[in-house]
Amino acid sequence: MVPLSHMTFSEFDLQRNESVHLTLARAFDAAWEPFIAREGDTVDTDDNRRRLAARIVALARSGQTDENELGEAGLIYMRVLTDAARLSERIREMPSPELVPQDADHREFGYDAVEAMSSALDLCIEELPLFIPADAVQVLSSSIVDEAARGERDPERLHSHAMATLMSRQ
C-alpha cells in the first residue's frame, strides 16, 4: 500500500481506503482533544464534531494528506469559529461604539448573522494558505464582526470586506 503522504489526489479515495480513514480519524482526534482542553466541555457538541470532521475531509479532498497538518488545520479552524462566536457574545453583552452602530436599526446577532459570519470566515480561510498567523485571523474575524454589526448579512460581501481589510494592513 502506498503511504498516504505519497498518494496523488486520484489515489486518495475517501470511500474505500482504510488508511485514509485512519489518518482522518487520527487528525480529528489530534484537533479535537486540544480544542476541548482549551475551550472546555461546553463546546463538546455534535455540531462542532461535524464541523471539524467536514473541515478535515474537505482539506483531505483538496490534496492535504499529512495527518499532522490536517489535525493542526482542523484545530485552527475550530478555534477561529469559537473565537468568532465569543466575539459575537461579547458584542451582545457590551456594545462598543467602534463595533456597533448606535442607530435604531441595530439588531443583535441572530442565527442568520452568525451563520453568515461563519460562512464568511470559512471563505476567508479557504482562500488563504494552510498556516496563517493568529493576528491575520484576528483581523479577518474583527472585520467580519464589524461589518455584520453594521447590518451586512451576505457571506460573500463579508468575506470580500475582510480580505480587503487584511490586504490593506500588509
Describe the overall structure.
- The structure is a single chain.
- By secondary structure, the chain is mostly helical.
- The protein has 2 domains: 12-82, no CATH class; 95-170, no CATH class.
- Helix content is 66%, strand content 0%.
- It has 6 helices and no strands.
- The protein has helices at residues 18-39, 46-61, 67-93, 111-127, 134-149, 155-168.
- Helix 3 packs antiparallel against helix 4 (111-127).
- The protein is globular.
- The N and C termini lie far apart (45 Å).
- Residues 1-12 and 95-106 have low confidence and may be disordered.
Radius of gyration: 18 Å
**In which range does the helix fraction lie?**
55-70%
Global shape: globular
Write the H/E string, N to C.
HHHHHH
Decide which structural class fits the backbone. Answer: mainly alpha
- Overall pLDDT, averaged? 79
What is the beta-strand fraction? under 5%
Work out the count of structural domains.
2
How many angstroms does the end-to-end distance come to? 45 Å
Largest sheet: none
Q: Indicate the low-confidence ranges by residue numbers.
A: 1-12, 95-106
Counting H and I runs of at least 4 residues, what is the number of helices? 6
Total number of strands: 0
Keywords:
2 domains; 170 residues
TL;DR?
This protein is mostly helical. The chain has 6 helices and no strands.
Describe the secondary structure blueprint for this structure.
Layout: H1 18-39, H2 46-61, H3 67-93, H4 111-127, H5 134-149, H6 155-168
